[in-house]
Amino acid sequence: MASAIFLFILAGLAEIGGGYLIWLWLRESKPLSYGIVGAVVLVLYGIIPTLQQFPHFGRVYAAYGGVFVVLAVLWGWWVDHETPDLYDWIGAAVCLLGVSIILWAPRG
Hints:
This protein is mainly α. It has 4 helices and no strands. The chain has helices at about 1-25, 30-45, 55-80, 85-105. The longest helix is centred in the N-terminal third of the chain and has 26 residues, at about 1-25. The protein is flat, with a radius of gyration of 15 Å.
């Protein structure tokens, strides 16, 4: 389980970080190198989830989506200095509950 959580977090940081670098390049006139590094990081994001041990693509990506939401809230707080409000935290908690159900619900 620790490996799964680590890979979800790593994938989320790659997706958000890569997207952020491209955002900086296109929206805030940073050098082209930001966009290139961002694109490479986004390719890595596409690879990381394939390292999960879960056998079903759809479930892995559905569960990852919940982790992504939590990481995006934290990124906004730490990088963009936008303090999450109560509804951000409630939404993030609901997403984590959904991730838990998707990945670890008993199935026949």
